Structures are given as structure tokens and as C-alpha cells.
Amino acid sequence: MTGVKVFLAAVIIAGASTVAAAGPVAAILPFEGKDKSRGEELSLRLTSEVVRKQAFPVAERNQLKNALIELAKGDSGIFQTENSSRLGQLVGADFLIVGEVFPPESGSTLRATMRILKAETGVVIGAGSAEGSMDEIAKEFSATVVRTVSIYAMLSNPDSPYTVLLRLDKGQNPRYKIGETLTLKFKVIKHDQMAQARVFLSLYSIDANGNMILIFPNRFSGKEGILVDKEYTFPDAKDDFEWKLVPPAGHETLQAIVSTKPVRIPGERSIDPSGFTVIEGRESPASYGGIQTQLKEDKKGDWAAERITYFLGE
Which of 24-28, 59-63, 185-189, 243-247 has the lowest mean pLDDT? Predict the structure, then answer.
């Protein structure tokens, strides 16, 4: 089977100010690297770009600095991913932005990578990479940040009786190579015993260019409905295909949407040669406009969503 891949050059950065903020909140940590001052500068410029767009609040710098000092292990001062939940609580952040900036290889060109962690679990839900000047990188990252936050906020439903769990076979911050196969395990759990025990899960793959494909359900697996509290595997051992990763390289994302009735993103068209349904256009907040309407109007608040990101390299 042609590999289905997912991209989300994404960063969710928001933060707690002295006043409680509505919607997702995140913190932008200093970027790591040999030159700590350069990492601090990129973090400040990215924060400034996000604040300028007035998309959502960003964590107060001094509060973040004090929290990092409290949580830092040893003398390295490097934030440990396992502390993501505690840091989120200390600064009131739902998401953490972490990354690394590399020394210029020629002239003034810098290279940087960025990851978005869900503070509660430490799972990577978005990522991006960029090259150029400090300002160019900050602007590129901020653009993907705003786009991603919009999508995540659109699909956030704190009142849902369901939670979607996604787990890749290489862990929370996985890296794959082109040509490798990938396996995803997913499970829907419910927090309300009165909630429906059979639900519908749509799983979308977004590649490094933002192209979207509906990979589950599909004509191979044939599962329109799934049971809550039961773990499923994609591809399943009984499926007659494997998930082989193909170009383009980059950060890719899996987006899961669970509802009590089948729901589809507008723009889905006929099955392509790989056997999966392709979504017209690229992932953007607009891509989810129709599905948000369906979820809010038809699903009576029971819907839930989650995403996970991985890196695909040469």
C-alpha cells in the first residue's frame, strides 16, 4: 500500500498571564542549542510574533523561568519531557513549545526545529522546522502556530464523555525513515457510563505538504463503528496491506475524530489509487469548518478529537 503520512508543521503556543485566559494556553520555552543566548532570542522573537497576532495568550516569561528552574534536573538546565505535566500546572499552560536552534552552516542562515507537547501527557501533537534568519524562522513558526491552535481549539470539546488515545509503535516523539512501516494503536475510552458504547472514528493522515487522506475507516479494514474501551491497531494483523512510509519527508500528523454518528470532512472525494479517500485541498482551519458544524449541530456534544505527530526522514 502507498504510505499514508501526516504532516503538521505545527506549534501550539499560548500562555498564562495574570488573568485567566479562555481557550488553549501554552508556554514557549527557550530553544536548546550550543548557544543558549541564540535559543533564548528565538524563543523571545517567536513569543513576540504570536503576541502580535493576538491569537491567544502566551505564558509570562518570569513565571516560566522560575518554573523551569524548579523543574530542571542536574546542572544542565534542560527541561525534561517527563516534567511537562508539572510545568503546565505551574504556569497554567495546556501546551508547551520546545525546540532546538543550530549554528549557521553558511553566512547567517540558521536552522531550527520545534515541537508542540500536550502538557498533560507529553505527547507530541505538532512540529515544524525552518531555515533562514532569526526573524524568518520566528515568522514561519508563528504562522504554523496560529493555524494549529485554531484547528486544535476548533476540535476541543472538554465536555465530551470520550477520550481518544493514540500510540505509535516508536513512542511519544518518534522518528521514522522513508520506506519503513508504521503501526498505530488507538482506543476510545468513556468517562460517563451512560455514554454510547459504540462510536465512529475517523482517522486522517496529513503529510509534510499538508495533504490529507482518510485512512480509517477504509475499504480494506471495513470498520465503520468501533467499541469503546477496546484497543485497535492500524493496520490490523488481518488487513491485507501494510503502512509503508513514502516521501515527502518532514513532520506528519494523524488526526482522530470520534463521534456518535459518522462524520466526514467536506471535500472528500473518490478513493485514490492507494485505496484511501483523499481530501481536496490542504489542512487548514477552513478544512474543519464543515466538520465542526456537523459535530456541534448533530452530535449533541459527545464528540472528541486528538492528534499525534511524528518525523519522517531520509
Answer: 24-28
Helix axes 61-71, 84-91, angle to 10 degrees: 150
The residue among 88, 5, 26, 3 whose CA lies nearest residue 255 is: 5
Neighbours of 79 (CB within 10 A): 20
pTM of the model: 0.82
Q: Write the DSSP string, 118-154.
A: ETTT--EEEEEEEEE-HHHHHHHHHHHHHHHHHHHHH
pLDDT band (50, 70, 90) for residue 125:
confident
Domain-embedded: residue 200: yes
What is the model's pLDDT at position 20? Answer: 38
Chain segment 259-282, per-residue pLDDT in tens: 998 887 776 666 666 678 888 778
Residue linked to cell 485567566: 20
77: left (phi over 0), alpha (psi -120 to 50) or beta: left
Lowest-confidence pick of 12-16, 215-219, 284-288: 12-16
**How many Å separate Cα 166 from the centre of its chain?**
11
In the chain, the amino acid numbered 70 is: E
Distance CA 166, CA 304 (A): 13
Q: Residue 191 has which C-alpha cell? A: 468517562
Look at residue 19 and tell me if it is in a domain: no
131 within some domain? yes
How far apart (Å, rounded) are the C-alpha atoms in residues 145 and 96? Answer: 12
**Domain extent for 296:** 162-313
d(CA 226, CA 217): 10
Which one has a higher pLDDT value, 135 or 12? 135
Helix (H, G, I), strand (E, B) or coil at 53: helix
Distances (CA, A) of 265 to 90, 173, 276: 37, 27, 14
Would you call 290 helix, strand, or coil by DSSP?
A: helix
Residues 87-99 pLDDT 10s: 999 999 988 999 9
Beta strand 198-206 pairing with 268-271? unpaired
- Is 133 in the same domain as 191? no
